[in-house]
Amino acid sequence: xxxxxxxxxxxxxxxxxxxxxxxSIYAQGDAxxxxxxxxxxxVACHALDKQLVGPALGGIVDKVKKESNLxxxxxxxxxxxxxxxxxxxxxxxxxxxxKFNKVEMLAFPxxxxxxxxxxxxxxxxxxxxxxxxxxxxxxxxxxxxxxxMAQKQSMNSKVILISLxxxxxxxxxxxxxxRQLVKLQQTEELAGLNASRxxxxxxxxxxxxxxxxxxxxxLGIFAAYGIWNWLMWVGVYKGYKPEQPIYFSHKxxxxxxxxDCQLCHSSAKYGKVSEVPSLNVCxxxxxxxxxxxxxxxxxxxxxxxYDGEIQKIYSAVGWDPASQQYxxxxxxxxxxxxxxxxxxxxxxxAQHVVAGENAIITSYNKKNPxxxxxxxxxxxxxxxxxxxxxxxxxxxxxxWCIECHRTTEVDMTNGxxxxxxxxxxxxxxxxxxxxxKVTVAAIGGLECGKCHY
Length: 453
What we know:
By secondary structure, the chain is an all-alpha fold. It contains 22 helices and 2 strands.
């Protein structure tokens, strides 16, 4: 009997050890810390509930255990250096590489075993989302107090309306009484004279002809000025911000995420025009970002709205997020152009973005100390990183450009400019004094042929 109990006890201990060993796969790390590490290192290519560039990682420990009989030690080798694991001849590592289009996963040698345990714990047992606000704490709009408040507001509105009607009636009564008083004070002789008097417009004009002609001249001048002013502002669309077929928020991309302007508008640095980035540029990021998880949401919008706009990109380029492949079915996107330089004007972005970068930023910050800029693009396009919808921030008239050329100083700290414009600088010092500065106008910035050729 004692022997049987002893074996029974040992059996229970063995079962407990077995269960605890298998359970330890799921409870070896800190899920909260794992969530932070996952978002910092994995979220660009993986999600818990769906495939992105890589497979869905929700319950990945259990999956590799059931499908390939692999444990967490293999996962750690894969995460730290999957390339070395493949080169060692590991069949499972090679099979995963082949399955996901031979897209090589980044190596993470910086992650410790404890870090990976935390990440795996997060993929197995993600922390529950914060509970929604208790409905009991919400204000009860049907309570007695709420009804009484609504009745009071309705009564106040009625009192105000009745008071306004009474005041209007009183004013009308006063006007009628004043009219009666005026009629009483008028004598019979004066009343007859006013009734029989007839004034000819021709007599009145001949009597005051000079005044009339002067008024006509003034009106003519005002009319001519109005027409001229209207003509001068033809084609000036400051504040113009049309809706685009796919919503794009510069505030989210350039502001919240600090993406450099020239990452998308690369041709602005090397060419005449900045161009509208192709959707292939968008897919460099959105191939791995299928939904919006940012903290900033524009008033009137929600996460579903942003997710829908990302899906428009996928439809346009023919991208299937499920298979992570292009279908070949594309749709052109008809963007609405905002900035359009006239054909008779030559403007080179590279000349301003590269050669004039320091000079333009320095000059702008001197003239606008309360709204300094850190990127040369903002000098013309405004605070682009704060715009949800891009708008034309300046006039872009000839006078606006000339004023900039007259006030922007050439960067003489540049070794090339310092040597090339040395004689010009010395000449300006003799002509205007030692405090004179070399501006863009001084080096030909006002010559007609520079912009009109």
